[in-house]
Design goal:
The chain is about 35% helix and about 20% strand. The chain is α/β, with parallel strands linked by helices. The protein has a single domain, classed as Spore Coat Polysaccharide Biosynthesis Protein SpsA, Chain A. The radius of gyration is 17 Å and the shape is globular. The model has no long low-confidence stretch (mean pLDDT about 95).
Length: about 220
């Protein structure tokens, strides 16, 4: 502990009907929740391999903490997301971790379980080399998979139309020259995106769940 860098992974209790609902149909709510559970396992395992970085699971809702705690590996700390909109929840995690004394904070979701660890280490490197900047990882769906800062700002989070295809572009417009970009990567939000994890060595728990469920063939995703 007591590193300068900290990574927070935003996770939601994998309850059917409350996670990955854009995969339903063709998946059932139970299948979507099971797949998301695998996303959490893969994402936290990936995070746990990042050197010289403290790791937090930023959990929601508080009532689902027991089910989430069974998925969180030893050595990963827990913080609770505020019960507000997505922007305020992300900002709240930044606020909490800066208050704990960390110098550089990166936040990712749990929808990109095959994300390369190099993206995260590069985000911290960019912050260290460019104080006062914000680092953003653009997602293929028009949002972003990572945001990292070395100081608090509400600019990227207030009055944003979360879930829309304009989140990344609007964030870029707001931050302008204060922004540094990572390579584009994907979230797993649509049924066809599941193919990206088929037999993926980068997301072994997700690949196992997909294979054992037979969902690709059963739902004609290829």
């Amino acid at each position: 502990m007591n590193h300068s860098n900290v990574l927070a992974v935003m996770v939601r209790a994998p309850k059917p009907g409350q996670v990955k609902t854009r995969l339903v149909p063709p998946l059932s709510f139970e299948e979507a929740a099971g797949l998301y559970r695998a996303f959490i396992v893969d994402t936290l395992d990936m995070a746990n391999h990042i050197p010289c970085t403290d790791i937090f699971a930023a959990c929601t809702p508080r009532s689902g903490l027991l089910s989430l705690s069974n998925l969180i590996p030893e050595g990963i700390s827990i913080t609770i997301q505020k019960d507000v909109d997505l922007g305020a929840r992300i900002y709240g995690v930044f606020e909490d971790l800066f208050a704990r004394g960390f110098e550089r904070v990166a936040i990712i979701g749990s929808d990109s379980p095959d994300m390369p660890t190099a993206f995260i280490t590069n985000a911290f490197r960019l912050l260290e080399e460019n104080p006062g900047k914000v680092v953003l990882g653009p997602a293929t769906d028009g949002g972003y998979y990572l945001i990292a800062m070395d100081g608090l700002t509400k600019v990227p989070f207030e009055d944003m139309e979360w879930g829309s295809e304009t989140v990344f572009d609007e964030t870029v417009a707001r931050l302008g020259g204060d922004l540094l970009l990572l390579p584009e990567w994907h979230d797993i939000d649509r049924p066809e995106d599941i193919l990206l994890l088929d037999e993926s060595a980068m997301a072994p728990e997700s690949a196992r769940f997909i294979a054992e469920s037979g969902m690709i063939k059963r739902y004609g995703l290829k």
